[in-house]
Design goal:
The protein is α+β, with helices and mostly antiparallel strands. It has a single domain (6-326), classed as Sandwich (Jelly Rolls). It is 25% helix and 21% strand. The chain contains six helices and 14 strands. An eight-stranded mixed β-sheet has the order 1-2-10-7-12-5-4-3. Helix 1 (16-32) crosses helix 4 (123-150) and helix 2 crosses helix 4. The termini are far apart. It binds 2-oxoglutaric acid and fe (ii) ion. Fe (ii) ion binds at residues 190, 192, 247.
Amino acid sequence: MPHPVTLDAAGIAAGATARAAFVRGLGAACRDEGFLLLQNHGIPAELCRAVLADAAAFFARPAADKERLHIRHSTNHRGFSRMQNSRDWREQLHFAAEWPEGAWSPGKPDHYRLAGGNPWPDAAFASTLLRYMAAVQALGFRLLDALGECLGLPPRHFERLSDEPPYLLLKLISYHVQPARNQRNGVAAHCDWSWITILLQDSTGGLEVQDRNGEWWPVPPQPGILAVNVGELLEIQSRGHFRAAPHRVISPATRQRVSVPAFINPPLDARIAPLAMPPAPIAPHAPEKEHIHRVVPQGAACEAFVFGESEWRRKGLGGWCHDPRCLS
Ligand SMILES: O=C(O)CCC(=O)C(=O)O
Ligand SMILES: [Fe+2]
């Protein structure tokens, strides 16, 4: 079995036989590894190139331009940040679903502080990024629909969890060059707090994914290919039938690396609960050689919760790992 597996997403909208084969392949990849590559995903190549080019151009701008969009000026946790700490060694520009109506006002739950608009560098940038966000979210929900089918759920189960719009997150990331090649991480090993994450990366390389045996595999970039990983939310809801894949990024040796993960998330008010199905048989997993940052420890029993509340704890209050030693 090649690592990671590549699926042809053209099957998703094809006739019944091709669709069934795609759904089976997707289900198996998300169950076995929680990670796969996707070709023929339907997002125009020209749009993917434009997003990567806009991201690279932004990170090449003078520090004053980045400071203007700094996340500390944002009331809803969006904008630029430069992180150089034990977990991250990168710059990023953080966007989310544009949702001016219904944003926080006194009396509303705190997690609506995450709603609102984005600090765009300029109008052309906004137009490209919003086009990409709509396309990647549509792809994400097509994949979730297929995964719901594998779990025996009715069509569009994930899309219909609430009437509010999904809280899509999109990060433009630039990894700093580390010429000494000391193998430090651009981002340390972690799982994503998402249903699924769809990643667009430039041609530099550095992403690695961990299999069930604890072995790390590189994910070499290929033109036109998107990477998809299961996040903790889907692992929790599917009672472990789908596996949140740990991943990390080794800092590039010779040139900046740009990547654009899109976190396909529920709406803020969605109630996330483990589905009424027997839990997956406990698969043996390798003892942790390296700490994996996770919001919820793997396999922990989980009660129903409101997604926005968990997201506010993570972002607004800094609870991004269950291990208190990570938070100091
Ligand atoms: O840059 C990448 O390839 C992965 C980024 C990532 O895992 C994250 O930001 O959650
Ligand atoms: Fe990630």
